[in-house]
Design brief:
8 strands, about 260 residues, Beta-Lactamase
Length: about 260
């Protein structure tokens, strides 16, 4: 059904002046009843618009909004990747970029380090916002109302030796993160893994993404890892000032169908 819906949407796009149900059925080879049903769904989602007078269908604003999101998301990656590559070249450690999506983070970019032992984490993968350096960097610098709303959505679970599972304790950690300007996750999501993360701040001063370096505990001490913070901050600032105007957070988030 998804394939039919996309085919129908493309057919509508072939008719800038609009097309009726029968014409679209002929173009797609679908039954008139199927076309009518699919068009109803596409109209409700905003991807197709019905001209009431002529009963003809044209592309809706949703298509153009989606195209804009793709452009913005591509802008985030295009800006961030060269900066992340330089960061990884200097440190040898893997770097990840994430955005918030409710009480989770979504990894939107990752650059492998050149050292022998690496930390996992794939583009598109999700993680808890409360026990990762990326998530805590985002939470700490959000507007208070937005942060409190997300804190109330979190379902705490102990995932590693140092996972914070208390809301009050997490608030204290986020306050400390704001004061020092960076977040640390020391065996909080995964045993034997520690990471340091900083927010990527947008034009309005809020976090649009976060950037981190992750290391194995046995190889890099916490104090050693925190020595990378100035480089991380510089990288995050470089990304932030180059971002295109628009909602890059919404653009980068995977959309649920």
């Amino acid at each position: 059904m998804l394939e039919k819906g996309i085919g129908l949407l493309l057919a509508v796009g072939d008719h800038p002046e609009g097309a009726g149900v029968s014409e679209l059925a002929r173009n797609t080879g679908l039954a008139v009843s199927t076309v009518h049903r699919l068009l109803g769904t596409l109209v409700s989602l905003g991807f197709v618009r019905l001209e009431e007078g002529s009963r003809r269908y044209t592309l809706g604003l949703g298509v153009f909004e989606l195209a804009h999101r793709v452009s913005l998301a591509r802008g985030l990656s295009e800006v961030a990747l060269p900066v992340m590559r330089r960061l990884v070249k200097a440190t040898g450690e893997p770097s990840l970029l994430a955005v918030a999506d409710g009480p989770e983070i979504v990894y939107v970019e990752r650059i492998e380090g050149w050292r022998r032992i690496q930390i996992r984490g794939s583009v598109g993968e999700r993680g808890p916002i409360y026990c990762t350096s990326l998530g805590k960097a985002l939470l700490a610098f959000m507007p208070e109302e937005e942060r409190e709303d997300l804190l109330n959505q979190i379902e705490f679970e102990r995932l590693a030796p140092n996972t914070i599972t208390d809301r009050s304790r997490l608030r204290e950690e986020l306050e400390l993160t704001r004061e020092r300007g960076y977040a640390v996750a020391d065996e909080e999501r995964e045993e034997d893994v520690r990471a340091v993360g900083v927010p990527v701040l947008g034009p309005r001063g809020g976090p649009v993404a976060s950037l981190c370096l992750a290391v194995p505990v046995f190889r890099v001490a916490r104090e050693e890892l925190e020595e990378y913070v100035p480089m991380l901050r510089e990288a995050a600032t470089e990304i932030g000032v180059q971002l295109p105007r628009g909602n890059v957070v919404e653009a980068a988030r995977p959309k649920e169908g």
